[in-house]
Amino acid sequence: MTKHIPGLTIAIEAQRIAALRSYQVVDAASVDGLERIAALTSASLGVPAAWFAFVDEESCRPQACIGIEGVSAPRAGSPCEASLSGKGSVVIPDLDADVRFSGDQSRPELKGFRFYAGAALKTERGDRIGVLCVADTKPKSTFSAAQARLLAN
Fold this sequence. Notes:
The chain is built from 4 helices and 6 strands, in the order ααβββαβββα. The chain is of the alpha+beta class.
């Protein structure tokens, strides 16, 4: 059964999942070019970690991880899910200070990280199939609006 993502209707969620499956990236050993993009994103934004998280019915599934161990995590209530349903980039300056995500138990994929930002990956048709994520082990109140726009584009 397709679960509901906040901000998306059941029909849109079903369409999103179909689009994700059509790209055959979930559980792929690697996807050409993504590691290079993740490395460039990390360097461009001055953060030690960047990765792609493809979001299926249950999980955020990492690919092309730079500076972070790729651990699948439940999508429900995760920073990844917030990024998928948000407009533009979702920036969380300090995960431990944000009541939605405080404590490593609520975000096992980000264990040891304090800063997170993510932007939805959209197909040509506009289906949100995943998230380009960045993180840092330190809180980051200096992540600018220009950096957030760069991540989203």
